[in-house]
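WARN retry 2 of 3 for item q-0093 after timeout on previous attempt; input resubmitted unchanged.
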Amino acid sequence: MKTILVVDDMKVSLLITENILASQYKVICATSGKEAIEVYQREKPDMVLSDLRMPGMSGYELQLALQEKYHDTIPFMFMTADQDEEVESRGFDNGAMDFIRKPFRADVLLRRVGNILQTMDRIQGLKKHASTDALTGLLNKSSSEQELTAVCKRASGALLMIDLDSFKLVNDIHGHAMGDKVLISFADILRAAVRPTDIVGRLGGDEFIAFCHGMLDETGIAHKSEFINKSVLKAAKALMGEDMNIPLGASMGCVFVPAGGKDFDELYKKADKALYTVKQNGKHGYCIFKEQEDADADTANNASISHIETILGERNQTEGALQLPFDGFRAVYRYLKRTLKIYKKSACILLLNLNRYGNPKVSHAEAEEQFISVLCSTLRKGDMVTKNGTKFIVLLSDIEKEHLTNVSDRIQENWEKTTASSCYLFSYEWAMLEP
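OK item q-0093 returned
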């Protein structure tokens, strides 16, 4: 039900107007301009019906005060017993949508109020259509940028750049109709990941943006990233089948506001840098922009070789194989292929897969975590491990093929010590690298 704020210092007139409108609308009343501003702030009515001649603050002044405070077109209708035509003209000049003289007939008042509300509904519908992405129903690029520019100046929270990883493969393998379904599902997932008061938009293609009010800690960002990635995989399998092996997921770059600034363009660049970091480190995760990372890059331009070694070096070095994001693994693979003939070293690549059987007591995601832990702890420091979609890839350096059985036996022995081994078997195939 629509809400109408009626403002009149004459209590009898106020009561009559309220009784007429109450048959079709929720009516709230105020007896002065000052009281009306307080009521409007609390109730946010759909329109205002105000007397023109009031002590302290006239109807004109009330309209201007509300529009200046809320920076929006507020549907106003004036009523007055004054017969002067200039009074009516001034009301329209101020932006009133209609004007009615006292005393008025009930049916005329209801018709005119109804016309104003219908007009506003049409205007709002046109605005929504112009600001909405046609496919997903999220804000489109221009509307997202407009709203975020305003909100970043005054609010605190997290600005998020979100990419749907490997989406191009959906279009290539399953066609654009399926791609549209995946994008619609992804938009629904993003809506579920944020609150109704937050902002979510589509910048185009597989790129999205969001602002989460009041979110200023990494824990919340981590939870959102985990929820989105799990939901994406679940939705993709529902659409394309359980055997879907496209490595769909979401990469998310974050910058906190106002810690990272208040200018949207600058914040956008910082969130985009954080997103790039995720993309370069295996995707399907998040990164929070830190000013120190930029300082490290600037320092590196003039750093000594020892500083460069520190920047390039592995932090928190652990025993066992080196786990790499897929892009880093690919770079090492290409390097080994180039140098095999030069250094006369042999190398082998393993492709491993986890196969579920029986009634699993451990989720597939948890089983994968246990399996990659086994691989890293079982293999040597000179070996490398990565994950691409549902597959695990191992690069064994300086090894002869007659020793591969020993490697697989060690992996099997350690895998059997895990809880997931009771409901997941692993299979593998291998190939020696040829120069």
